[in-house]
Specification:
Layout: H1 15-19, H2 24-34, E1 44-45, H3 48-61, E2 73-76, E3 83-90, E4 96-102, E5 124-128, H4 136-139, E6 151-153, E7 160-161, H5 165-168, E8 175-177, E9 182-185, E10 196-198, E11 203-207, E12 217-227, E13 233-235, E14 253-257, E15 271-275, E16 283-284, H6 287-300, E17 312-315, E18 329-331, E19 337-340, E20 356-358, H7 359-363, E21 374-376, E22 381-384, H8 388-391, E23 398-400, E24 405-409, E25 419-421, E26 426-430, E27 440-442, E28 447-450, H9 467-470, E29 481-485, H10 487-499, H11 503-511, E30 516-520, E31 528-529, H12 532-545, E32 557-560, E33 570-576, E34 582-586, E35 608-610, E36 617-619, H13 620-623, E37 635-637, E38 642-645, H14 649-652, E39 659-661, E40 666-669, E41 680-682, E42 687-691, E43 701-711, E44 717-719, E45 737-741, E46 755-759, E47 767-768, H15 771-784, E48 796-797, E49 813-815, E50 821-825, E51 852-854, E52 861-863, H16 864-868, E53 879-881, E54 886-889, H17 893-896, E55 903-905, E56 910-914, E57 924-926, E58 931-935, E59 945-947, E60 952-955, H18 972-975, E61 986-990, H19 992-1004, ...
Parallel strand pairs: 2-3, 4-5, 5-6, 6-8, 7-9, 8-10, 9-11, 10-12, 11-12, 12-13, 17-18, 20-22, 21-23, 22-24, 23-25, 24-26, 25-27, 26-28, 32-33, 34-35, 35-37, 36-38, 37-39, 38-40, 39-41, 40-42, 41-43, 42-43, 43-44, 50-51, 51-53, 52-54, 53-55, 54-56, 55-57, 56-58, 57-59, 58-60, 64-65, 66-67, ...
Antiparallel strand pairs: 1-2, 3-4, 14-15, 16-17, 18-19, 29-30, 31-32, 33-34, 45-46, 47-48, 49-50, 61-62, 63-64, 65-66, 77-78, 79-80
Helix pairs in contact: 10-11, 19-20
Length: 1270
């Protein structure tokens, strides 16, 4: 037996004897005497992690033993003839305890691999007389991870450099032997756990450190120490102590022996300075690489907390002992990762990590790595076939996929492969013939019929699995299904085993070890069409952020959650759920700009957004101002960009947001109070200042390294080292400005670059809406039933470029710089419509700047034609979205031919009838998911984006050829709505009454009711069309009163004539009639008068008392100049008046007591007039009272009324608390001295006179006008 193959037992000789063995001959003698005869012991097979660790050891140190094989036993107590793993010993459980090499073939300089840390039972490593020529610190840099190591012996080698402190303080290490080497430097402070230390025959200097616990055995003979207190020793006699390496080496160098062939350890040989492992410091990872690695971390589920933007990456050749991050990663000198080695001992990827997923989907994108040479995914739970693109990566020379659950045939191999390990899987058929023979190949323990092309020594049938083992998944799985280990069955058996101790339960768990079953393949999760409302939002996002992906188009398929990227789809970087709603957007490593659009609120399933390293130069408040509308957003990562400005408080308090990363940007200012929902917050590498805010609920994971914070309590961090915290932007910016980086081409995020003051989003303040526009919008509010309380004359309207975070009103509205509305966006996330039959009023035609209307998902239940009739009068309308509502009836032709309309979305409603001829101006049309019939009309020009699936159309080829198949339309039974059609004057509509009755049944009963609701889901019935409510002749007495009103108020409408027809309640304006702005009941009696945006004067005549059905009067912005008492003197005589609106006029004088006391009147609005004097007692019947923007004085009276809404801001009141406590502080600060008298004067103009405004033709209501006594 060769001495190099002897297996020493650590029990066979005491430590000092092992250290002093003089020759291999004595070693042979000792082993002959002490080792029992072969064949006595009982070996154990090693588990996968132990095999992986020893194979890593073999590779790192150049071990040449052929019996280091997973199929051979490891020695226990003594070695038998079938045992392998020379020089390795195990315990009775097959756990490695000893690795003992002495003499024989030289070993490589390592280092010892990190994988050794998986050998939890390893207590003894001996590597003696192996001519290892290495820096000790480099060779042992991973050793401290071997937590149970008790004895370490590297005597008689060519080790050099200093002894690392991490080595002598390993918690379990009791014996350390490093004699006869070339170690230099001082000895670090020893750990108290050490019992025995042998350092003789080295060049160690200085004094021997005083150990906290005396050593039981110590030797330091023949060293260069000056003081041996605590350890017997002696100074070298050669006189070389002060001369080696010329007396010393510089920083980053170590004194190393010049070893030649034949030189023996311990000989006095020349020594010179060599590069030390400490001379290669870790460095920051390159920006784009770090961004990609963070995405990899999230995608693989790596949990290392040191994978962060600010962590240092170990450079190849650098010391593991130098503080660094990015565990398991090595970088090149430019900070680009060159190796990822994460084993079961250190983290979550790659060999031995229990990764349980389909292989093709897991590794699909690896084929795009242009420099990949080595890939090891062994000892996991990967299943399914191997895809061919992986085996043919041009640079890949070594691939290890052993010990998984891979099945199917092995694809053709690339000629570049030199090493391939596929053993211990379920691969079938023959091993393919490689283009050139593989130097290293293993495919044993599979279901292959021929492996001779891989390895002839494995060609025997006994090296493959048995037929019963290969009969996995019942012999095969159907198309779209893959054979995978069934962890559920295994866990159930293990649970049985834990609750029962019987032999049967234990046998079940052993037998079921990873049984195989058919599961749906990720490739079978086919991409889906994106939901129409989501498409609109995503296209708005594409425009808003300038997303460069060309496959973000209407009609493109979206990859689904758990689906494989190997399936063709569009919508790059987007993941959808099964219903086509986006759940995640990850646009990384692109070049973006702009902001998130307001349409994002429609993405109700969206939980994840990642915009890492997209070179976004934007103020964060502007970029993210619409993010709060995404109600389910949980994860937001915008690290590695050029974001600047203050972090908005609304971003930190998003109700569902648990993860937020803004690291490596240029944010400044203090940090707002984070919400209690946040679990992880990353703010490192910014210019944030002040203290981190204290919180009653600490954030579990928080980082703020390299910032300008002065207090990191609650969030670990550090101060920037550049010293520029107080100097950016000259020490600060002015009001309405933000400190922004001056970004040039080629600059990387995180670089220290000049910063200057830029205009902030906060400098674009909201403004008051233009008077006439506000009038129209209030009428729109009433007509649509909008419930937002901030739609008021006093509210500010957000302007483009302004911050959503600045206090403003008019929710969902955007105005231009003159205060004219340009966009209305109200979705199911922000509001709803409560009227039974809402519609756009005729006054909408005055909003000529309005270019976009979006009202998706509001459950608007009404007939489409009357609802949208007046929209055709908008001269600037470009985008209209009324999707996902309950609109029914036909589409009217005047809508689809609006000259400016380019985008129309009506999907997800109950529209029926044929589609009218389309205008050539349309570019995008979505009519999907309705009940439209006949053929899609021929288009003047092809539509770039068109969708009409899920209707009852016979031909949609003119819209979208990909939807032309019959399977894309509703079935015949679905299209048989309303019994096949409705009579004239009727319209087919969803019957909510029937549906609600079924829902009510469901709440009280179970089975039948549930089935009823499922079947009846919005059933369709015939209802009277609003077009069928024909105008009626006005009743004679009413006509006489209305003509008197026309004369008295100077109403300009020429169709107020005796004999003219009056539009009836619920009727549509699309039917010809007279009496403009008047609505009658079926008997011809007026019920509502709404004369708005005209020029009126005079007063209500006494004849109005004859209008017994009149309940509503609205005279908004009619430039009425009149004293209130005169104008309204006859209004109390209208017997059923409920609603009075006289806002935006020039009405002056005092409030009449009779108006506020009228018993039927419940709503009064006199906002934006010139009323003065005190407010009389308010009747208890009043529920809504609006008096802002007047000159009213005194105290708002106490009242028995219970106000649903009351406003009195911008008056001269001493107390407003009885109306609205919030208006108390919103009274006029100046302008209360009217008519040259203090407003507090009871009669500033004296008896029989009144204070009135001087109104010029150009004057606007609510403006500050001169006031004089009349």
């Amino acid at each position: 037996m060769a001495t190099s193959q002897l297996r020493l037992q650590r029990q066979s000789a005491p430590p000092l004897l092992r250290l002093l063995l003089p020759s291999p001959l004595l070693l042979l003698l000792l082993c002959t005497l002490l080792v029992p005869p072969l064949g006595v012991g009982a070996g154990q097979l090693l588990d996968a992690s132990s095999v992986g660790a020893l194979q890593a050891f073999k590779s790192a140190l150049g071990v040449t033993y052929s019996d280091w094989n997973a199929d051979l036993d490891c020695c226990f107590a003594t070695c038998g003839p079938t045992d392998g793993w020379t020089n390795v010993f195990c315990d009775g459980d097959g756990q490695v305890t000893d690795i003992t090499f002495q003499g024989g073939s030289p070993l490589s300089p390592g280092p010892l691999p990190l994988q050794l840390s998986s050998l939890t039972a390893l207590t003894y490593i001996m590597l003696r007389q192996l001519r290892i020529h290495a820096e000790l610190k480099a060779f042992t840099q991973h050793l401290s991870a071997v937590s149970g190591l008790q004895r370490f012996d590297m005597a008689y080698n060519f080790l050099y450099g200093s002894i690392p402190a991490a080595l002598v303080t390993m918690p379990a290490l009791t014996i350390l032997a490093l004699p006869v080497n070339y170690l230099t430097g001082s000895i670090p402070q020893l750990g108290s756990q050490l019992v025995e230390l042998i350092l003789a025959s080295n060049y160690l200097s200085s004094s021997f450190p005083n150990p906290s616990t005396p050593l039981a055995s110590c030797s330091a003979y023949s060293t260069c120490l000056t003081d041996f207190t605590g350890c017997p020793g002696s100074v070298r006699t050669s006189g070389v102590c002060g001369t080696i390496c010329g007396g010393g080496c510089g920083e980053g160098e170590a004194c190393a022996p010049l070893v030649e062939e034949g030189t023996m350890p311990g000989n006095t040989i020349p020594m010179e300075c060599a590069v030390s492992i400490d001379s290669v410091p870790p460095r920051l990872m390159h920006t784009s690489a770090a961004a990609a690695m963070l995405l990899l971390r999230r995608s693989l589920g790596v949990t290392f907390t040191d994978w962060t933007a600010t962590s240092l990456c170990l450079v190849s050749g650098g010391s593991m002992l130098t503080p660094h991050g990015w565990t398991g990663v090595r970088c090149d000198s430019q900070g680009h990762p060159i190796a990822i080695d994460i084993t079961a001992t250190t983290g979550h990827a790659l060999p031995g990590n229990g990764i349980y997923t389909e292989f093709k989907a897991f590794a699909w994108h690896l084929s795009r790595l242009t420099s990949l040479k080595h890939l090891d995914l062994s000892s996991n739970v990967l299943y399914g076939p191997i895809h061919s693109s992986l085996l043919t990566i041009p640079t890949l020379t070594s691939l290890t996929l052993s010990d998984n659950y891979l099945s199917g045939c092995i694809p053709a191999l690339g000629s570049q492969l030199l090493s391939l390990s596929l053993s211990s899987n379920y691969l079938s058929s023959s091993f393919p013939m490689p283009p050139t023979p593989l130097p290293a190949c293993s495919a044993h323990t599979n279901c292959l019929t021929d492996v001779s092309a891989c390895n002839t020594s494995e060609a025997g049938a006994g090296n493959q699995r048995s037929a019963s083992e290969c009969a996995i998944c019942g012999g095969g799985c159907a198309e779209g299904v893959v054979c995978a280990p069934n962890l559920m069955v295994l866990r159930r058996a293990q649970s049985m085993q834990s609750t029962q101790s019987t032999q049967s339960a234990m046998a079940a768990a052993a037998t079921l070890s990873y049984p195989m079953s058919c599961f749906r393949s990720r490739d079978s999760f086919l991409p889906v069409a994106m939901a129409p409302d989501a498409v609109a939002a995503m296209l708005a996002l594409k425009t808003g952020l300038h997303v460069p992906f060309t496959d973000w188009v209407q009609g493109a398929l979206c990859s689904v959650e758990w689906g494989a990227d190997s399936t063709t789809h569009g919508w790059t970087a987007v993941t959808c759920n099964g219903e086509g709603h986006p759940t995640a957007i990850a646009i990384d490593l692109q070049e973006l700009s702009g902001s998130f659009p307001s349409e994002m609120s429609a993405l109700t399933a969206l939980t994840h957004i990642s915009l890492i390293n997209d070179r976004i130069v934007a103020e964060i408040g502007a970029l993210a101002q619409n993010l709060p509308s995404i109600t389910n957003l949980q994860y937001l990562d915008m690290a590695y960009n050029f974001l600047y400005g203050f972090i908005p408080e609304t971003l930190l308090t998003l109700p569902a947001l648990t993860f937020l990363s803004l690291s490596v940007n240029y944010l400044s200012g203090s940090i707002p109070q984070p919400g209690s929902q946040l679990l992880e917050l990353a703010l490192s590498s910014n210019y944030l200042s002040s203290s981190f805010p204290s919180s009653p609920t600490p954030i579990p994971t928080c980082t703020a390294f390299s910032t300008c914070l002065t207090d990191f309590t609650g969030c670990p961090g550090s101060l920037r080292t550049s010293g520029d915290c107080g100097t950016i932007c000259g020490g600060g910016c002015g009001e309405g400005e933000a400190c922004a980086p001056l970004v040039e081409e080629g600059i990387e995020p995180g670089s220290i670059i000049p910063m200057g003051c830029a205009v902030s989003i906060e400098s674009v303040p909201p403004r008051l809406m233009h008077t006439s526009a506000a009038t129209a919008m209030l009428l729109l509010k009433r007509s649509l039933g909008v419930t937002f309380t901030d739609w008021t004359t006093a509210s500010l309207c957000l302007t483009p470029g302004g911050s959503m975070l600045t206090p403003h009103g008019w929710t969902g509205v955007l105005c231009d710089s003159q205060g004219h509305p340009i966009a209305i966006n109200i979705t199911d996330a922000t509001g709803q419509f409560r009227l039974p039959a809402p519609s756009f009023p005729s006054v909408v035609s005055t909003l000529q700047a309005l270019s976009s209307i979006a009202l998706p998902g509001n459950s608007i239940y009404t007939e489409f034609k009357p609802f949208a009739w007046h929209l055709s009068r908008l001269s600037s309308l470009k985008h209209l979205d009324l999707s996902s509502n309950l609109l029914y009836g036909p589409i009217h032709s005047s809508l689809v031919t609006i000259a400016t309309l380019t985008s129309l979305t009506l999907s997800g409603n109950y529209l029926s009838g044929s589609i009218p001829a389309l205008g050539s101006q349309l570019l995008s049309l979505s009519l999907a998911s309705n009940f439209l019939s006949s053929s899609f009309p021929t288009l003047p020009t092809p539509l770039p984006a068109c969708s009409a699936h899920t209707n009852c159309l016979t031909d949609v080829s003119a819209c979208n050829t990909s939807e032309a198949g019959a399977g894309n339309q509703r079935s015949g039974s679905e299209c048989a709505i309303c019994g096949g059609g409705c009579a004239e004057g009727k319209v087919c509509a969803p019957n909510l009454m029937v549906w609600r009755r079924a829902k009510s049944m469901q709440s009280t009963q179970s089975t039948l009711a549930v089935a009823a609701v499922a079947t009846l889901s919005y059933p369709m019935s015939c209802f009277t069309s609003r077009d069928s409510f024909l105008p009626v002749a006005m009743a004679p007495a009413a006509a006489a009163a209305m003509l008197a009103l026309k004369t008295s108020l100077h109403v300009p409408f020429t169709d107020w004539l005796e004999g003219a027809l009056c539009s009836v309640e619920w009727g549509t304006d699309s039917t010809t009639h007279g009496w403009t702005a008047v609505t009658c009941n079926g008997d011809g009696h007026p019920t509502a008068i709404a004369i708005n945006l005209q020029e009126l004067s005079g007063s209500f005549p006494r004849q109005v008392s004859a209008l017994t059905a009149l309940t509503h009067i609205s005279l908004i912005n009619d430039r009425i100049v009149a004293e209130m008492g005169v104008l309204a003197a006859n209004l109390p005589s209208i017997p059923n008046l409920q609603y009075l609106e006289l806002s935006y006029n020039f009405i002056y004088g005092t409030l009449p007591t009779a108006i506020l006391a009228k018993d039927t009147l419940t709503s009064i609005s006199l906002a934006s007039n010139y009323l003065s004097g005190s407010i009389p007692a308010v009747g208890s019947q009043i529920s809504e009272l609006h008096l802002p923007h007047n000159y009213l004085t005194g105290t708002f009276p106490s009242s028995g009324a219970t106000f649903a809404s009351c406003t009195c801001a911008d008056n001269c009141l001493q107390s407003a608390v009885n109306c609205n406590a919030g208006d108390e502080a919103l009274q006029r600060e100046s302008g209360c001295d009217i008519c040259s008298h203090a407003i507090g004067t009871v009669q500033p103009c004296g008896a029989n006179r009144v204070c009135a405004p001087e109104v010029s033709p150009a004057a606007e209501p609510a403006s500050l006008l001169p006031m004089t006594c009349h």
